[in-house]
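User: Please fill in residues for this 128-position structure.
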């Protein structure tokens, strides 16, 4: 068994696609209309056949409550691995990304947390 799709709840799929593609650098994979919403996935440019990230609409009331509670408590919705966290932090800051936590060493990893503009906090992490 392996992970093939993982989702992140977003408040606006078009805005999320712009952020995750143009700012973070993920590559669009599937964009399938499903009525009012879309099956909208992206992959890492380094692994186009790898795990897909689904930008899932947060239309269910429980989803919005869950997202808001995580964000209020400062808990990231997900974590992405990076090779050089300082370089990613610098690149994303230059692109206007708002970080709630700068790179911080935590044992075997250094992590940073930013706001994805779609209702989530996202962590990036570099293993040492």
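Assistant: Residues filled in for all 128 positions:
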């Amino acid at each position: 068994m392996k992970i093939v799709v993982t989702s992140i709840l977003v408040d606006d799929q078009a805005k999320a696609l712009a952020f995750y593609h143009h700012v973070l650098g993920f590559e669009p994979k599937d964009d399938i209309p499903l009525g009012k919403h879309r099956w909208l996935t992206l992959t890492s440019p380094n692994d186009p056949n790898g795990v897909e990230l689904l930008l899932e609409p947060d239309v269910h009331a429980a989803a919005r409550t869950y997202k808001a509670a995580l964000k209020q408590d400062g808990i990231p919705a997900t974590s992405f691995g990076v090779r050089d966290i300082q370089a990613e932090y610098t690149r994303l800051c230059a692109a206007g990304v708002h970080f709630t936590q700068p790179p911080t060493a935590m044992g075997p990893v250094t992590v940073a947390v930013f706001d994805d503009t779609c209702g989530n906090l996202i962590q990036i992490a570099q293993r040492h």
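For context: The domain at 5-127 is CATH 3.10.180.10 (2,3-Dihydroxybiphenyl 1,2-Dioxygenase; domain 1).
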